[in-house]
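**Fold in tokens:**
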Amino acid sequence: MVSEDEKQTILVTGGAGFIGSHTVLQLLKENYNVYVIDNFDNSVEEALNRVRLLAGPECSRNLHFYLGDVRNKEDLENVFSQTRFDAVIHFAALKAVGESVQKPALYYNNNIIGSLYLYEIMAKYGCKKLVFSSSSTVYGEPEKIPCDEDVPLKAVSPYGRTKLFLEEIARDIQKADSEWEIILLRYFNPVGAHESGMIGEDPKGIPNNLMPYIQQVAVGRLPQLNVYGTDYPTKDGSAIRDYIHVMDVANGHLAALQKLFRTENTGCVAYNLGTGNGTSVLEMISAFEKASNKKIPIKLCPRRPGDATEVYCSPVKAFKELGWRAKYGIDEMCRDQWNWASKNPHGYETTGLLQNEGKKKEGEKNSDQIVQYMLSYSTTQEF
């Protein structure tokens, strides 16, 4: 845990999202001051309300929120003009491979423009330490499996290309100005949820990723699971991925921050965050059925454009240089995913109590009041 004398202030973009909310919780528990900016495009404020509860009254005082969009310079100016940040963790982005194929312009606008504005405002205010949320999709169809960080980058989807372009932009920015220190975290397929079942993944609309889709079928929100691709050259015909528990991903961000703060001249460096094990889609479905004691009806569908056959990583570099490794296996991932889904079959129940630092109003509830309210708010539902 960071001591009071060493306490740093971190801005988290997209901090109300799936990975963002779990990372914010871990930051609070490690005694960081945490500021979140989010536009709730694919997230809800209730996630941060529950993060406050899980963090406890003492730590939750260190969480601050701005309603805003990284594509709006005024929103970023509003945040940076009021607080000096020691580092930024940049999650804010659209992330669905399939949707990016259908709406490439939307992805290039959202993911790249917002990041460029963020770099500009960070430089203006002298904050040049960044942990960037990259993705395994930068590898496309890797030339070797498991893929390490030196494998040629060949993104095949618009989403993957936005991450690849942003990695190149990060390298160019750091090369032009050596004061920048940037860590690129290429995580693979984050799943699971916090062990409490209080926070988890709750996408708006039809899920684009496997596990939230499975959980919505399991709780009766969707009739069946579409399995895209059963003719891949794999052991069971379904695609293979490196699934990783979201808490492992969150802790990877803390390890990256520690490197930025404790190591000089980090430069711009990439790390894989994965287990190093490949699991097929059908194997993951079977593991979830075991964890939930539910039979998941499936429909076999053609492959989706942009999906790779087999991708899993070598996490050796992250272990050697960050001291990080994944702790959870597939069984724990499915256990925690089901715990979240069974307690929250309809996703987050919103309270509307989150305080926007950018627009404080007289009489608004402070964080202590929110925590006290949430302590009396039952998030566990019988199902």
Q: What stands out?
A: Residues 9-375 form a domain with the Rossmann fold fold (CATH 3.40.50.720).
